[in-house]
Amino acid sequence: MDLRLNICERVSAVCGIPAGEIAGWLETPPSPDKGDIALPCFKLAKTMRKAPPAIAVELADKLSDIDGVVRIEPTGGYLNFFLDRGGEAKAVILRVLNDGASYGASTEGEGKNVCIDYSSINICKPFAIHHLTTTVLGHSLKRIYDHLGYHTISINHLGDWGTQFGKMLVAFQKWGDRQTVESGSPVRELVKLYVRFHEEAEKDPSLDDEARAAFRKIELHDPESWELFEWFREVTLKDVEKVYKLLGVEFDSYNGEAFYEDKMPAVIQSLVDKGITKVDNGCTIVDLSEYGMPPCLILKSNSGTTYHTRDITAAVYRKNTYDFYKNLYVVAYQQNLHFRQLFKVLELMGNDWAKDCVHVNFGMISMADMTFSTRKGNAIYLEDVLRASIEKTRAIMMDKSPDLPDMDEVARQVGVGAVVWGPLYSSRIKDFTFSWDKALNFEGETAPYAQYTHARCCSVLRKAEGYDASAADWSKLGDESSAALIKAIAALPDAIRSASEKYEPYLISRTVIDICSRFNKFYFDNRIMDDDAGTRNARLAVTDAARIAIKLGLFLVGVEAPERM
After folding, report:
1. What is the pLDDT of residues 491-547, one digit of tens each?
2. Contact (Cβ atoms closer than 8 angstroms) between residue 14 and residue 62
C-alpha cells in the first residue's frame, strides 16, 4: 500500500535502486517481533559494495521520518520496519472500501490482448471430470487478466476433426436416430454409439475402413455427411452449455480444428516456401533434431493434416486476428512436447511473437477408485459430479440450517464452488485427486469454508445495520489479530499480480484462506459491536473490508460468495 511505497521511495533515494524494483524485494517477517516489513539487504551488496549487515546498519542511520513507520531496526542482513498499525489499518481499509470490487485492479493491461485457449472439449465425447482443471484454470486466468485491465479472448478450441468422426458417422447411420439423441442427453447417446462402434469393430475390423471412408466424405464436404457432422457439433454444444452455465463459464470463440481446414493450405505452403520442411518416407516434416526434439509432422503420407498443422494455423490466425500480447494454452502436461515443437516451428517460420505463446500446463485430476475411458463407456461426467456436489451440499444444509432462505440457490453456489476449488488450491502442475469429504468440508481450507466466512462477515454487517468509517478509531486495530487480518487483506493485490505472472490462481486461493482464517480469529478475539463508537466503527470497517476481499478473491477463481449460509 502507500506505506510500502513510502519505504521503497526513501530506500531508493539512499541507494539509487528504482523504487519499483525495491518493492519486489520486500518481505513479511516470520514473527511480529521482527517488524511488519523487512528489506533483505543481500540484494544491495553488489551495488553498495558492503556486507548485508553493514548495509542494514547504514540504511537504518540514513532513513528517518518515513510516514507511517514508527521504528526501524537492522537485524543481521535485514532492515526491519515497524509500522504505525493504526495508520496502516486506515490506509488499507479505506482503499478496500473505496475500490470495492476493483480492489487490486490496474490498467497495466490496457491495450493488450490475451488469448486463452482452455476447456477444448471434444465433439460427441463426454464433458468429463478430466476437463475440470483446464476449464476452471482457464476461466480463472481470464478473470484475473480482465481484473488487471487486459482484453481477454476466451477460446474453446473444439476437438471436431479426425477419423473418430468417421466412426461416429458410421455408428449413427447403422444404429442411431435423431429423435433418440435429441430427446435424451445428446452427448451420452452419441457416446453409446461410439462405444458400440468399438465393440462391433473388434468383431468386424472392416468397420474401421468404413470409418476412414466416412471421414474422407466429411473432408470432401459431401452434403449428407457434412450436414450430419454439423449436427453432431450443434447438439454437443447445446448439451454441454448446461455445464458451462453451472460453472459460470462463457467463451468468445468456439473455433475448433474444423474451422482451420480451409486455412491450412496457405500455412503449409508458407512452411515449404521458407525451406524449413522436408519429405521423409512420404511425410512432410520439420526436422527438430537440432533442438533435441523428434520431427514435427505437418502432412501424413496420405496428405492428411495433423494436430500440429491445425495448431500452427490456429496460432497464425490468432495473431492476425487478435494481435495478442500473450497466447495461452491451458493444456495438461502430457502435451509438453507437442507445445515445445509447436512454438519452435512458429519461431523457425520467423514469427518473433512465438515467444509470446505459453503452454500453461497442469497435472492430472482423478476421482478415487474410478478410471476414465470413452471407448469402454465408463466416463465420469462433470455434470454428474457438479450435481452430486449440489445435492450433497443441500443435504448438509438441511441438517445444519433447515430454515435457510434460497436453499437451492445457496446449495448450487456452494456445491459448484467445492468442485471448482480443488484444482485451484495447489500449484497447477500437481496431480489432484477429488475427494467428497475434503471438498465439502466447511472447516478446512476449502471453498465452503471461505464462503461460510464471507457469509459470517455479511451477517455481522446486517446485524450492525451500518457503520461510519469516518468516525472509526483506527488505533483500536493495533492488536495482533486485527493487524494480522489487515496484512492478509493488504496482500491480495500482490497475490493477484503474481497469479497473472505465474499463471497460478492458487496464489489467490491461498490468500483468500489466509484472510478467512485471520478474520475468524479476529471475530473470536474482539467484540465487534463494542460500546465505544470509534472501536465499533473500526471493527465493522475491517469486517467489511474482509468481506470485499474474500468475495473478490473467490470471484477471481470462479467461486460465488453467498451472503447467507
Report:
1. 999 999 999 999 999 999 999 999 999 999 999 999 999 999 999 999 999 999 999
2. yes
In whole angstroms, what separates CA 183 from the centre of its chain? 35
pLDDT in tens, 15-32: 889 988 898 888 888 887
Spatial distance between the Cα atoms of 122 and 191, rounded to a whole number of angstroms: 11
CA distance 507 to 424: 9
8 Å CB contact between 4 and 35: no
Mean pLDDT of the chain: 93
Which stretches of 220-304 are DSSP H helices? 223-247, 264-273
Residue spans of the domains in the chain: they are 2-83, 162-247, 404-427+436-556
pTM of the model: 0.89
Residue 36 CB partners (closer than 8 Å, separation 6+): 28, 29, 81, 82, 83, 85, 88, 483, 487
DSSP 83-143: E-HHHHHHHHHHHHHHHGGGTT--STTTT-EEEEE---PBTTS--BGGGHHHHHHHHHHHH
404-427+436-556: CATH class:
mainly alpha
Question: b vs e for 93-121, b when ≥16 Cβ sit within 10 Å of the residue's Cβ?
Answer: bbbbeeeeeebbbeeebeebbbbbbbbbb
List, for residues 441-473, the tens digit of each pLDDT value. Answer: 878 899 999 999 999 999 999 999 999 999 999
| Closest alpha carbon to 1 in 83, 78, 64 | 83
- Cβ(112)–Cβ(146) under 8 Å? no
- pLDDT at position 378 is 62
Second-level CATH architecture of 2-83: 2-Layer Sandwich (3.30)
